[in-house]
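Question (not urgent): is this output format expected?
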Amino acid sequence: MNKPRQSFWGLWNISFGFFGIQIGFALQNANMSRVFQSLGSSIDDLPVLWIAAPLTGLLVQPVIGFMSDRTWLGRFGRRRPYFLAGALLAAFALVAMPQAHALLFAALLLWMLDASLNVAMEPYRAFVGDMLHKDQHTAGYAVQTAFIGAGAVVGSIFPYLLDHLGISNAAVIGGIPDTVRYSFWAGAAALFGAVVWSVVKTREYSPAEMAQFGAAEAAAGDAPSAALAGRGFGGGVAWLIAGSVVTVAVQQWGLQKEVYLLGGLLAAYGIATIAAVAMARAGRETHMLASIVGDFSGMPPIMKRLALVQFFSWSALFIMWINTTPVVAQYFFGSANPASAAYQNGGNWVGVLFAVYNGVASIAALTLLPALSRRIGKARTHIVCLLAGAMGYASFFVLRDPHLLVVSEIGIGIAWASILAMPYSILASSLPQGKLGIYMGLFNVFVVIPQLLVATVMGSIMKAFFPGEPIWTMAFAAGTLAVAALAMLRVKVPGEA
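Got this back:
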């Protein structure tokens, strides 16, 4: 038996919750630095406060994926309980955030918000694979990407719209503007309502139905964790040594202190590997840690190759998110001084540019991606879109009129749409269905690691080689997307030439 084909409205119901989740992410990304600084944080402390977001995703998503693969709560389903729980906690954090009067409380709420959004988001990737036949995976992830883009636009411009409607955008000392306060509260309602819509309007297939569809697998994680029992501790020791070397390098070469986090993560993975091997040797093969480490080290070949593509793709994205404002302000509005009116005008224009690329992504996801993938295949579609993004970043060097940067954002928006859709469509069609949750969670590691590397290493590179010249970050972004496109040549999608 095959899974029933979903209509457009079926695809809509499956992914509509992502619209609300992305509103929450957009409000977080656009306003948390503003909240922190309003509560007394210096700009130098912002990276430390922000590091909670990627670190939370790195820890939460594999765990939630592991758990959701093994969950079945009758009519409540497999993935939907996690959507609902995550949305409820995230909505609470959004409501409470504007009431924070202490920096530590706001930082803790950010951690809670990001963890909750990850709890809600991770199962959605596997949910599309659960609910759709392989020939609808591209359409399913395209609709999900369209909702991501639409949610990002709404969440990003909501404070701007409230300001133009007459809501106060001024903040008293130690307070948060009403535009931000009301945006967070409206975002909480939108997030929870959108997720509830998906929960109510969908019905998950039971384990028996999945078995009829031929999608059931042996208990997820058993084979990889059992294979760990035959491994030595050398791999874990190597990771532990690598983490120690990075830590020593920070001290010897005077790198930014955030690089300590990279060393700590490498060492932590080494310790986790040693512990997982020890558990497997002791016969605890289905333990969560052993299963996660076993599945990570035993990823299917297509996932490993896509992971490399994902690593370089997201490196470019994080470079853009961190550096676009100083680049546009300095090179297109003529000021590198954050206190100047020109710099603030540049920052406002960056908000418009970000809305453009998210809007383009929504349109491209529903029109360009399905048409291209039918004509030239998923792998080549992704290559074309990544190269469009690379040209968008490179154009920052040749354009001088800030309004023409809208053209740059069109290319970036096409790449953004494909990054959010095509790798997941390829994975969902190529991986064991019984392990979609854990594999999608582990795949997120290659979204988070680039963010941590950019946050920790990029600053040291720019300080050493291009001090005061942030435009070169766009060259790095263009180059990494081009490398991602080259790496995509090694990805062979089953059924495609």
